[in-house]
Amino acid sequence: MNFRNKILVIEDDQKLGKTIKNLLAIQGYDVCYTDNGAIGIQKAFEYNPDLILCDIKMNPIDGYQVYQVLKESSMIDQVPFIFITGSSDLKSIRFGLDLGADDYFVKPFDNTTLVHAIEKRLTKYRKLKEIGKREFRALFNLIPNSCFLFDGNTIFEANQALIKLLGIQQDELTTYTFKDFFDSTSVRKLNELIIRCENGLLHSFSESVTVKPLTGTRLDGILHVAVYEKYPGYSLMVGLISLNEDKNDKNEVLISDVLNVLKKENIIITDSLGEKLTDVFKQHRVNYEKQESGFFSQRENQVLCLSMEGLPTKIIADKLSISDRTVEKHRAKLMEKTNSNNMIEVIIFALRNNLLKI
Amino acid sequence: MIEAKKSKKISPNSQFELVKSNALRFNEYQHIISSISHELRTPTAILKSNIQLLDGYDKTIAEDIRKESILLCDAAVADLVIFLDNIQWINMTLKNSIKPTYSFFNLREITNDLFDGLIKQNLNPKRIEVNWSLQIKMISSDLNFLTQIVYHLCANALKFSKEDVLLQISTDNGRLIITIQDNGIGIPEIETEKVFNPFYRASNTTRIPGCGLGLAIVRALTDCLGGEIYLSSLINQGTTFKIILPYEFSQ
Fold it and tell me: How confident is the model at residue A357, as a pLDDT?
């Protein structure tokens, strides 16, 4: 299975956006296009692109702001970022590059030059990821701690340490779910954290757990989890268990090193694993029906949850059977309540303050 | 051979020096040139990219993409034409060469092409609430001028406001009153006169595309029809334009 490079295009002129989308699709890229900076930021998390092309002059969130928000987030701060602009003013070009953008294209651009620049950035990015992947594989196989790749349910790969700890055979791994190996208290605690990871809201966490091997006694320890690879609506995570009984200074240092490697973004996935993944591909969403009114009213919660999916006003209005205008009013109210300038800030506010049940 | 005395010596870049001697005017020229160039870049990029696409991949390109490429070129050309038309209007007003052409028409005709025009500019006309309050239906004025005034005011209101926009058209004792009200970003008070200058854009619009021709056209056409413009605006709360125009009506 061949995973195509994913490019996120953010350009507020729809005609130019479609043009770029077509151009890149013909080149064999998987393209996600939006004409709005705020949605662009959301898409960057959902879609997990390999490269971002972004216009500068956009309203209400401009290209510089999109860039700054994304670079502050550890999820995608390594993704190559290219500006496309209508201004040939040297000052603004320098400003964009000073911010740290990888490249800068002035309209009208040459298709071949643009594609070459994209390919160049992607190759560089791929090399970075390959280094991460090699480090990761070596660690995964050699580390004395239990290490595994899993989604919310299934464990897809496990190292020898985990196989031994759980007392199972390598080939029967996928017949169990991840939850079979932890006690119910641990599973309850882990559920929400894992859903947050799957939704791209959390990149890693550490939580104390009780491991429940098939045979033998239960063991207490800490489970460290980091997102390993992300697809729209689906995340593959890597878990590492450090048992309390193994605790010593040397091991602590090793674990912190390993965690640093695990947290490195976007390590390339193996093909066989990719095939397994697509089989179990599913969508996780924040369910608006589950929300209770509190800080936000019921309607505001609904509008917020649907906005988090990046849905346009019209679709949200249809889903909730209210008018476009009412949706906009709820959005305005959400922004007012949270003292935000845009929906992204509202979402960040809601997540920081745990205002949403996930 | 022409003697040196008789021929007029052209100093190098004389025009440029003249312009530069007046720093303010030079800045204005520079601003106008960069506005125009910025405005032309996006449609030019669409044309260039699609032509290259059609040229380079004509054998393998999928039929639907080929068709879309051509449509995108068409749309980009339409944008350029609109822009050139606007420039043309500004040019005519600067030369004082526009004259209204009076005819009798039904007032409601002035919004006939409004929605299509706005859609072409990627603006959502459904956000406009139109409110008619007409004592009479048929008036004598310049239909084209009125259509343009309403169009530019609506396009502005939609562009600078996220919320819905209220357009009111009413007649009152021989006066036609067009009011457009938005809850948008507003116009800074010290700039309320300047925003009607061609190519002038209010200081809080830098992130919003455009090049500052709409209001200049509105003012020129309103002047031409002997009308008056009233503007009230509060930053981040909204703007209301009120245009009062005389007209003649048929009994």
Answer: 59
